Predict the structure.
Amino acid sequence: MSSQVSQNPRREQVRDRILDVAERMFASQSFAAVSVRHITAEAGVNLAAINYYFGSKAGLLKAVFLRRATDLNRERLGQLQAVLAAHPSGPVPLDGVLRALVEPPIRWMFDPSRGHAVFIQFLARCQLEDEPEFKALFYEDVEHLRRFMPALARALPTLPETELYWCLHFTLGAMHYTFTHLERLRFISNGMCDIQQADEVVARLVEFCAAGIAARVGGR
Amino acid sequence: MSSQVSQNPRREQVRDRILDVAERMFASQSFAAVSVRHITAEAGVNLAAINYYFGSKAGLLKAVFLRRATDLNRERLGQLQAVLAAHPSGPVPLDGVLRALVEPPIRWMFDPSRGHAVFIQFLARCQLEDEPEFKALFYEDVEHLRRFMPALARALPTLPETELYWCLHFTLGAMHYTFTHLERLRFISNGMCDIQQADEVVARLVEFCAAGIAARVGGR
DNA sequence: CAATGTATCAAACAAAAGTTTGTCAGAGGA
DNA sequence: TCCTCTGACAAACTTTTGTTTGATACATTG
């Protein structure tokens, strides 16, 4: 195991291998439950490598987050801009806005290539970490959700701002739960809800939330 | 600190104090992140007390769970039975079924007395613990959710079973997220969504989910 | 009163944790 | 060739972890 480590002359390889393993472990276990010894052992690198490359265990978590968070937010906002651009004036379809919010992460979730699927679960789990250092990291990430508020306001011109926030909240909830508890849905339904296609999940999610929001508009 | 510990002749007092502190700490931090030393220090009891009363740290978590989980499930199922009994034949109102599902925990969440509010967050967080010993504990708890399926079927006779599971899933998601991320809703809305009343949250949640489910029935 | 069992305590235990250190091999530049 | 810098390594470091151990005080029971 230790003899075949040095067969790769590439420099970045060790760093990326650590990030991949850490991403996977932090996705299924809490920060405190994962030890740097487990990560380095599974990655086949030296124990000191994490402190060498990332300064500390906390630095590693940050690096795992930052490696992909920017890309995900870019996808979301790009899709949002596309919807807004398609409707330059007047109302924007609610479906489109919601889709821009939930489709990119759901697609990542079902993406077998690279660690995209794992990252989504990592993201969902790490939001619950309580250490202030991490909270600040994820609160920065919340900022990009604020960009969806003007779009929602354009899709629902009659709804007061407070209502919009509640709609966003419930939508994020249904999405978030899909990240973390999809396995449980499969279990509780005795395998009936065995989902392989991202499109189907996105369609269900968007339809559910759009209807829930529409009820606020009409049934006031 | 240690001199005023023995002022209470009651036996159960130490046990309950440990449970209260552990419930609170496990609600805001992961299992691995909380040490028995932190718990016992905060509870003002001896370090060995946890192993004495609960056998192990894992046993303590189980005890925290079992202390209130039964009561919560009883409330839920009681409310469900009341709705079903009020409509002995024919269709059951969807609102009532959903309300039986989400109202008890949301009420607990806003209950200032005892540790009810903390327990709900404890419950939400611990569902993500990965150790098989705990997973089994919470999968038992999933069983009582299955009791809601016949009721949902009576409320939505035309919907296939798979659809019912999805509706249950999204509803649990919106509810669950309210448990864990209510603080974030307050933050992202700049305090506009400053909720104090359980009734309002329940009403919003039930309305949102009922409409989302109704869309599946009508817009097929 | 004597005996028993329970609850609490300080102390120690072994294991695991994150981090630091010093050394060595090798590539690249002067 | 010599020097320098980077990366990888084993080893040790200091805390902290969960758990166990006896000893002691006290209430209850015989």
Summary: The two ends of chain A are 65 Å apart (CA to CA). Residues 6, 35-37, 47-48, 50-51, 56-57 of chain A lie near DNA strand C (CB under 10 Å from a C1'). Chain A touches chain B through 52 residues (CB under 8 Å).
